[in-house]
Hints:
By secondary structure, the protein is of the alpha+beta class. The protein has 4 domains: 164 residues, TolB, N-terminal domain (Rossmann fold, 3-Layer(aba) Sandwich); 70 residues, Sandwich (Immunoglobulin-like), CATH 2.60.40; 72 residues, no CATH class; 118 residues, Calycin beta-barrel core domain (Lipocalin, Beta Barrel). Helices cover 27% and strands 40% of the residues. The strands form 4 sheets. Strands 15-16-17-18-19-20-21-22 form an 8-stranded antiparallel barrel. Strands 1, 2, 3, 4, 5 and 6 form a 6-stranded mixed sheet that branches. Helix 2 runs parallel beside helix 3, helix 3 runs parallel beside helix 5 and helix 6 runs antiparallel to helix 7. The N terminus is likely disordered.
Amino acid sequence: MKLNRLLYALPLQLQRPRWGVTCFLFLCVLLRPLAAQEAELPRVGVIPPQNLSDLPQYDIVAEVIYNTTELTLRLIGEYKVVALPAATPVDPEGLRDLGLEQNLANIVLGRIHEQDGRLSLEMSVFDTLAEEIVLTRTEEPESLLAVFESTDILVADVVQEFSGVPVGFGDLVLRNTGEPGSYQVLLDGALLGADLERVERILIGSRELEIRQERMFGEYTVLRQDLQIVTAQTTALEFAVPELVPRESQALEFFERELTEQIEAPRSEERVRELFANAAALLEDTSYSPGLAAYRSRFATLEQDWEAGIEEWRLALRPRWIFPISVGWFAALSGENDQAPVGWVSAQRRLGDSLYLGLDVVVVPDLAYPLPSISWRPGDAELLLMTTLLPLPGELMGKIGVAYRRLSVHFLFISNVPPDTSASDDSEIQLGFSVGYVF
Length: 439
């Protein structure tokens, strides 16, 4: 089959993982330690390969070669890699001027072209000091599928000869026996990819493999294990993604227990909403363990049921009986008595949704008065408006107050007016203030 017949399928095929070259990078990192400081490293420029075939489908091949070459040289750690634009001149004179201008020791470049109806991939290394191309390698894939292997081989050969690093590869097969959750695979601390089941052409030697997840409370290591990768052999490894880790299990148990208690024995609507919101936030992403979606649905259903009966639940927040008490001080505005302490004790029963009726007992020195009382809670507010009033012939006694949650403040008054209103000098008015608590 001629290669040109498959050109339009090339972009899709080239989207396969490039594990061959990626894993080769780790060999370079291990065998070439990062000893030199970046400022002292030789500078190497990388130019995207030119597509001279006039076929835009090969632009993807050029991009793959450029990306893997740049990444490889960066991971070797002995070069300061300088990315150069695609429009950079590639003639010897232009490369020499560019190398001198940017202080580049070497420049890696390439081209893609057709020769006798066959695709040709070419990479070269220009030496600025020698002012010439010192290394050229070419690959001619036999078919479209061979393009993948050819790009790997081409980049590996050029970098190996350029850096002097030998290469050997083995394969790794991963099998998740636990929850079908997402995970990341790291080799010697470097990320290989997500949800991998097979990694080809891994650097030979002793390697540390890590399976990691981003879970409810952050990063979690599923497995960390040392492996021995052998040339041309496949290593198989099993691991199990857990449905829940201990901290997650404790958190979910806490939310279930707290929500059950708050709904069955109402204390605070605000607290219930806070618990539902926190539980939803923790379970917003369950890609690391799809089984947790059942917990999310359970909390969502519980919240819907609670919202459906919210009026009845709010009513349960309001106690049937309340027992306000308060203490304060009276000051006389007229009359003989100057001031006196005062205390109030009350018992009230709820009638309907918002109204409380009951009896107050006001205690002043040597006396106690029973007074009718009424309180009202407006809507869903946490305020309670409290009044007590007793009109008698020649006397008016009462208080007006407001309670927020449990604490209350009150304005107190007593007015004594003789039946003979002409004797205004005998009238007495006392005002007072008290603070209290509602049981």
